[in-house]
Amino acid sequence: MCLKNKACSVHDNINRIQCLIIKTSYHDSRPNFVLMMVDDLGIGDIGCYGNDTISTPNVDRLAADGVKLSQHLAAAPLCTPSRTAFMTGRYALRAGLGSTGRVQVILFLAGSGGLPPNETTFAKLLQKQGYTTGIVGKWHLGVNCESRNDHCHHPNNHGFDFFYGLPFTNFNDCKPGAGKGVLVDVQETLWQMSALLALASLTLLAVRASALLRVSWSLAAFLAVLSLLGFTAWFVPFELLRTWNCIIMRNGEVVEQPVKLETLSARLMSEAERFVERHKDGPFLLFLSLAHVHTPLFVSEGFTGKSKHGLYGDNVEEVDWMVGKMMETIERLGLSEKTLMYFTSDHGGHIEEGPKGGWNGIYRGGKAMGGWEGGIRVPGIFRWPGRLNPGREVAEPTSLMDVFPTVVKLAGGTLPEDRILDGRDLMPLLEGRTNRSQHEFMFHYCGMYLNAVRWHPPDSDSIFKVHFFTPNFSPAGAVGCYDTSICMCHGEFVTYHSPPLVFELSGDPSESRPLSPDTEPRLAEVLERVERAVTEHRRTLTPVERQLTWAKVLWKPWLQPCCGTFPFCSCEESNHTSAGAE
């Protein structure tokens, strides 16, 4: 296994021997890791977080057997930046994955933006410690930079020995009949433009044919060419989007294009179980990144109609089954006391989806809202029998970014010293050696914009949240951005507050009562201290290449992953898939 570890040079026998020694010497002392992340799950969708109508017995058992975090926070309210922060232990804008405009996530698998090759993931550091690393499920951090097979952003280039799953994500175009999900207004504009130009060209030809006016052939031809170009710019990247974006890869190979959602969950679980079985002698890290519960919703046979909450509830209950299968595998192999298991969501539920979206409990807002708690407060559960006392709850502020230093230290690795890390080791909190979070301040971004700041004063149990701007809900009186389907972070879509809005979350977790000098004697101190913290934080930011510009996110045919000969990309994975080699 070490021969395929990037930390072990093929041409350096000494490094290979050292890597083998590390792998052997820590065989029994260091934990395995199973990290499970759901897509778009609301914190209120889980039984142990207050839901009493959706059945989640396996996630609830995970919490009962371990430690539940009740103030666990995503570092961003959308998939791509949140997962960037999770992988690197750093705010996403440090890697160039923040946006100043409407495009805040990777939109095309054949774009050139993604997680830069010079970023260090926890998987890279665990490889150096002799771990076998795998990701099964969703990636959504890019694939290629300059050519179809350079795989500069691919999981295999970011420390994962094995990858099986969706290099993009599940979105509406992946499910026939579910509608469109990418730049719908741009698609409509291109279609209307091409239709109008075609009509103009035909009109000129008709006028010329009837001899009503003298019309230049070149003008009619020019309009026809423009119409064809507009039609091509609409049809090729957008109407074929299911083929381009909705694929399954095994390591660097496309094995299904487009994906068949109806069997996806079973295949993901099969691959995850096989990975653990192959590496039961450890040490290993598995990141199980589920495609559920992002729309379009889909469930496997046997889960339809089970929940009181319709198709969305069915999805959550299938997620719970998948968590249960993972727990069962670890227990069957006798790995429970050797394995740290973790469960979370990448951000809050998508409330604008209505019954097809998640519920964020008592928390205001949802997906894409970087300030309101509903967009960033997520489930956080750790289980490690024999090491973590069962049934504990930690109410201190913690972050998805904290997973990075936690797993690296437990694996015996050294944290990088050539870059700023924003995550903190969670083990002192999880083990009860301290009752205080290492996060005095947390910075909540929406794209590139600092949306809010959380302050947990060292001399107080209070947790203050300062909002610099809030999204403009639409229509008037709504609790989300229903007119645009999702909230945005810039321009006319937000309202800046001067002075900022301030809430005290310990007493007002729903953020419904802004503080005033009459209700909070420390208000001036809060604003002054947060202002200083923001200044200090911004000094740590350095310019990097931005990965979510239009030039990087738009479709480039020469970067399109393809099975077969481009553009005739089509293949179906066999029902009897063989275990992939790392």
Question: Can you give a write-up of this model?
Answer:
- The protein has 582 residues and is an alpha/beta fold.
- It has helices at residues 13-25, 57-64, 79-88, 122-128, 184-209, 217-239, 241-245, 264-278, 310-332, 373-376, 403-410, 427-430, 523-539, 550-553; strands at 32-38, 67-73, 132-138, 162-166, 248-250, 253-256, 284-289, 339-345, 377-383, 392-394, 398-399, 441-446, 449-455, 464-471, 494-504, 564-565, 568-569.
- Strands 1, 2, 3, 4, 5, 6, 7, 8, 9, 10 and 11 form an eleven-stranded mixed sheet that branches. A four-stranded antiparallel sheet has the order 12-13-14-15, with helices on one face. Strands 16-17 form a two-stranded antiparallel sheet.
- Strand 16 (564-565) and strand 17 form a beta hairpin.
- The longest helix is centred in the middle third of the chain and has 26 residues, at 184-209.
- It starts with 12 loop residues before the first helix and ends in a 13-residue tail after the last strand.
- Mean pLDDT is 92; it is low at 1-17, 21-27 and 576-580.
Class based on secondary structure composition and strand pairing: alpha/beta
Low-confidence stretches: 1-17, 21-27, 576-580
Q: Got a strand count?
A: 17
In the CATH scheme, what's the topology name of the largest domain?
A: Alkaline Phosphatase, subunit A
Query: Superfamily at the CATH H level of the largest domain?
Result: Alkaline Phosphatase, subunit A
Average residue-wise pLDDT: 92
CATH class of the largest domain: Alpha Beta
Report the helical percentage. Answer: 25-40%
Total domains: 2
Number of H/I helices: 14
